[in-house]
Each structure stands twice: as structure tokens, then as C-alpha cells.
Fold this sequence. Notes:
By secondary structure, the chain is of the alpha/beta class. It has helices spanning about 5-60, 60-75, 105-110, 135-185, 200-235, 245-260, 275-280, 285-300, 325-350, 365-380, 395-405, 445-450, 455-475, 485-490, 490-505, 520-525, 525-540, 550, 570, 580-590, 605-615; strands spanning about 80-85, 90-95, 115-120, 125-135, 265-275, 310, 315-325, 350-360, 410-420, 425-435, 440, 480-485, 510-515, 540-545, 560-565, 595-600, 620, 630. Helix 18 links the parallel strand 14 (about 540-545) and strand 15. The radius of gyration is 47 Å and the shape is rod-shaped.
Amino acid sequence: xxxxxxxxxxxxxxxxxxxxxxLLLFVRGSQAYLVEQLASHGQDTATSFGLSLSPxxxxxxxxxAESMVDAIFDRGDYxxxxxxxxxxxxxxxxxxxxxxxxxWFRQWIDLKVPIRETEINAGWQLVxxxxxxxxxEPALVHLYRISLNALLVALVVAAVAISTGAxxxxxxxxxLKSAQAQAEALRRRSFLRQQKLPWVLxxxxxxxxxxxxxxxxxxxxxxxxxRMRQLQQNCFIxxxxxxGNGIRGRDRLDxxxxxxxxxxxxxxxxxxxxxxxxxxxxxxxxxxxxxVGITELLRQQLARFPLGRLYRMGQADFWALLPGxxxxxxxxxxAELEQSLCQRLQQAGATRAMVASEAFVxxxxxxxxEQRLHQQLQRLLAGEPGxxxxxxxxxxxxxxxxxxxxxxxxxxxxxxxxxxxEARTLYYEVLTRFHDGKQWRTPGAVVVLAQRLERQVxxxxxxxxxxxxxxxxxxxxxxxxLNLTTASLLSQHFxxxxxxxxxxxxxxxxxxAVEIPEQAALEYRDGCRHFVTLMQQEGIxxxxxxxxxxxxxxxxxxxxxxxxxxxxxxxxMNQEGSYESLLPLMVTAAHARSVxxxxxxxxxxxxxxxLHDFQVDGLxxxxxxxxxxxxxxxxxxx
Length: 638
């Protein structure tokens, strides 16, 4: 119950009690007054009428006396008249009144008037006794009418008082409503302030406190984001190009090699030759615009691989990490990239660029991949062909056929548990496996292939429909999170189907949630914000996946339920002076926005304990449990 309703009920009870008390006092007061007036009227009648009858009865004329009694009684003001003499007796009693009050009112209001009597004397001799009883019915009818009018007036006044009081309560409690809106806005990661202060001292103090809390929360969030950017810049960013440096590149490759959801990929190393001659001829300053241009060219060439990441590993070396890509699919782009880089370098006065490409698979080691890249570059520098020339590049038709084969059948669904600090289930992340006709494949290769063919929405729709189909067969009373591609976030068709699916899942007892990539929030801010707002209206929680400090800054305008940290913060947390320093800042900044923080790929219990020390809200990884088939979810969740 809201405070307004509670106070309104109290106001109604107060007005009702005052109205009832006032009305009761009015009726009872009128009753006492009427009884007193009727008794006085009866006594006056008995006295005056007795004096009128005295000379008549003195002569013994009872006939005339009877006429006088009838004349008085016929007026209807008296319930009974009785004249008793020595030998004669006259009695008149009313049988029924022409107008009476309701029975319930007669029972509640009793206008019983005592009988009044007087003695009639002839000289010093008593000749008769006169008893008069006043008829209370006209007075009772009159009292009923004025009471009914008083009740109607009291109800109108009470209604006006309650309406005015309700309006006054709304006006007085408006600052509380604004404070509630401020708290809700904080939960949605926005900062509202009340510009107009209320005149009630207590509410004014509350408003000032809420404004200060909002200011402190905003200041804390901005300070944490600033410190994170500075720390990231110092530890992981190359100052000349703005790319991740060698530390970040090797850590990223290590994550990919240990990520069970990344089956394979390609590492591309770009080596620039002839920079020494450029430096001697044009000076050190000539290298900076060249590196900026090379970086931009690499970004443009790799833009067709949305999951790819670019790093500067040294003065003349760059890495491109392309998870989910098969080597034969990369080779045409590699040759095109090498040709474009050579043209740019020759225009700038350098010699040439060499592109070495090596495939990697789950379970490998960073040192082995780096060594193979180094050996390939040595052969290229010596003019020998690299081993990748033996690989036959695939064309778009072959790639489309491979994707069709993997989308021909519903994927196999698995669920990976995310637990909170008390080991309770926060939600299950839905993982997929696609069959290519020979073996089950992780979604990395499928998603990358679909992105290159611009068919990502088909993949997400297939997974969504498969999940709904399995929920219909075996409902699960749990929150289930789907990973979405960037294209699906911007597809109106997919958004409409996702909203329908969310409502259908709710009828089956489940809560549908989604995880969206950080890259989407960075590249398509408006579209991503629109998507999250729509999902929030449907009650579908949204989590931001693989979050780094760059993505965390987007929380200011992105009202997500929580974030999943980049796996590097779990795998390399013990690396001195890097991730361990960033992690508490990221958690604090997220909590300042009331955003939950989950660390994924937690493989060791010691790492989990340290993450708990940093106040991480949830954990996911093989340290606790691995993915299970969707049909094998615990029965307690069904």
C-alpha cells in the first residue's frame, strides 16, 4: 500500500468519524430539544384548557365539556385527552397519524413525552382531573426530515473535504513521488535532480538528500570511468595508434585458445618492412601519420569480420585476431590486404608489407602460434612461399553451402549456469551447437560465416524458435539468456518476434533474457539503446557481454540489467599491474549504476574467491559447472 493511499484512508476515516459524530450530536440534541418543547406544550395545554373547563364543570355541564374536549382533540396535536370527574369520565385517544416516520427511525429516536395533568376546581372544590398526552409523531416526522437534509449536506461537505484533502495530499507528497522517480532513474542508469524544493521541512531535507545522492552517484561513476580509461591507456593501449598493445593482444589470443565456445580462428600478423629507411630519410616524425594511416586501412579491411580484433604488437608489427574464421575463407582477404598495405607503404617511402596467417584451434598455446607466425614471416622475408599457399581459398558459393548445411537442422541447445554470491542461479546462458553434416560445431564459426554472408538474423531466429519449441515440450521455470548478433539488434523483424517470444516464454513459466555484444553498444549507440528500451518494456532482461572499460562507459545511457566482464579479467586477474587494478574500478562503476556484474570463464576456485572479494555479483565457469543439455536442467528448475 502506498503512503498516499494510507493517508487518504486515514483522512476518509477522520472525515467520516467527524461527520457521523456531528450528525449524531445534532440528532440527539434535536431530540432532547423536541422532548422538552413537547412536554412544555403539554403542560401549557393542560393548564389553559383546565381553566377553560373550570366554569363549565362548575355548572355540571358535561355535554359542553365534551364538545370542548372534542374541539381540542380533533386538531391532532395530542395523543390522548382524559377528563375524569366524580361521576363522569371523558377519554379521547388518537388511533393513527396521517404521516409517520420510518420504523427504523422511530426505534432509534424515541420522543416519549410524559403525560401532563391538572386539577379543575369550582371554587375550593375539586370537580375533575385533566390528563394531556402530546402527540410526538409530527415532531418525529419533522426531525426525520431535517436529519435527512443534514445527512445529505454532511455527505456533500465530507466529499468536498476528502477531495480537497486528496488533492492536498498529492501536492504535499509530490516530492516523495519525485524522490521515487529519482531512485528509479538511478536504477535505469540516469541522473535526475529535483529543481523545485518543497516547503515542508522534512520533505525538503529528503529532496536535498536525494539530489546529493544523485550527484555523488554520478560523480562516482564518472570518476571511475575516467580512472579506468587512464589505467587502460597506460596498461593496454598503444599511444600512437590507439590500438591494443602487445600485452592485450597476447592475452586476447590466450582467451580465445581457452574459450570452449571458440572452436577455431585465424591469427594474422602484418609486418611492415623498410621503416628504418623511412626514418633515416624523413625523420622519426614521418612514422606517426604513416602508422595512423596503416591503422585506418587495417580497420577498414577487417570491418567485414565483426568479431575480429586488431592490436599493435610492436613498432612494425600488427596482429588481427579473427575467431571463428576458417583459413581458406580468410586467404582472399589476406591477399587483398597485403596488396593495399604495400601500395600505402611504397607511397610513404617504405619497402613492403608482409601478411602471415596461421590457424589456431581450441587448446593451443600462445607461444606456439606466435612461433609459427615468426617462422612464416622469416620464410616470407627470405622470398619463400608460406605454407598457407597450399590451402585452397573458398568462394562465396561454397561458404553459403556450408552455412545452409548448418542451418538445415535445429541446433542442439545447452545451458550454462550463472550463479550469484550465495551459489543461487541468476540465469542460464543458452549455448548452441550446429551440425554441418559431419560433426557438431560451436557457434563461433557459424556466426562469423553468417556475418560475412549477412545472414546473422537467420541464425538468431533459428536458435530462438528452437528454444521456444523445447520450452513447449518441457517448460523450465528459470531465466534463459540468448546471445544475439549485432544485426538482430537492428532488425525490426527479429525484435518483433523476440517480443512475442518473450510473452510466450512467460506463459510457459520461463523468463527470456538476451546478451548483446559490447561492440554493438559502441558502434550503434542509438539502435542499441532503442533495442534495450523495447526489451525493458517487455520485461526481457538485457545483459551486455564481454565488457571492457570502453563498454562500461556506455552504461550512462544504456539501461541494461547487468554486464558480463571480458574473460580476460578472470583468466589474467593475477597479472601484475593490469587486470587486477581495473577490475575493482569496473565493479564499482557498474554498481554506481545499479548494474549487476558477472565474471565468466572462471576456471579456478581461488579466482572465484578473489572475484567475490571484489564484490562481483555472479560467476560462470567450469570451476562450478559446465554446460548441460537443455533437457537435463535440474528438476528443481522445472
